[in-house]
Specification:
Elements: H1 2-28, H2 34-37, H3 44-54, H4 60-72, H5 86-121, H6 126-140, H7 143-157, E1 170-172, E2 175-177, H8 182-215, H9 218-225, H10 230-259, H11 262-267, H12 273-282, H13 286-314, H14 316-324
Antiparallel strand pairs: 1-2
Helix pairs in contact: 1-13, 5-6, 5-8, 5-10, 5-13, 6-8, 7-8, 8-10, 10-13, 12-13, 13-14
Amino acid sequence: MTEGIIRRLMQCIGVLLLMSLLVFFGVYAIGDPMAVLIHPQADQIQIAEASKRLGLDRPVWEQYFVYLANLFRGDFGTSFVYNEPSLKVILQRLPATFELVLCSFVIAIFVGIPLGLFAGLRPQTASSRLIMSGSIFGFSVPSFWIGLMLIMVFAVEMGWLPSGGRGPTSRYFGIDLSLFSLDGLKHLILPAVNLGLVLLATVIRLTQSGTREVLTMDYIKFVRAKGLSNRRILRVHVLRNVLIPVVTILGLEFGNLIAFSVVTESVFAWPGIGKMLINSINNLDRPVVVAYLLLVVVIFTVSNLVVDILCSVLDPRIAITKSKA
């Protein structure tokens, strides 16, 4: 286990170096930040001074190696727009996105797994068919359209929930959270449902197909012959095996939800890192864009590592197979 964790961390460093190279030169190619940051009527002397101050007067390869050297010291560069460390700019908005992703996960797990189990245990009932049809709807409809419909129905027509923005926050352990207040939860419900709908549909379908597959296994027939109750069979033997692919997908989707929360945060004016990324791209704020993408790579790698550990806990044969390989 320890060797696997160390090996994965070494892979993470290699991926970060490669990603920093691709992202830095990719962002460098999309435009000149001076055209956005400097007033159009600025003269050449002012442009040259600003370019030198930001380090943009050097060749691109030299800029990259300077950035890489700073990166090893934990310095992700200074934002051109905010004039603050880019990592600080991201971390200020990261709790809002994590809040959104966490609530989406809660919805997907505590709603998707029971619905998928029900649909897998009773596949021929009308309610099961309705659940599976609803999961197809979650895959098919674009999230921005669903977000607009949620705002139209629950905010505009019924007036039950706010249409956008983040509710009042309170500081816990140095982090601003809106999750623990009633008004904050009201602001959180619609964007969390919108962001987690695709994940909810995925969990339902995976759980349903896994349940139907496990119920046909010989060991299920054996434990039934031993006289175990259906509740114990479901909790100990069925659910444990069904959760392995579900946990894998949840781990992969965690990074996806953070990386692709841009649409939801834009529709609901949620002040997270997705909305910040759009603003940084529009302003050609290279340090923030590069730091954001590197952070997403770290999140993907760590979430995959956590998935491997959880899967080995659910099924020790996975860890044994990897160690033999």
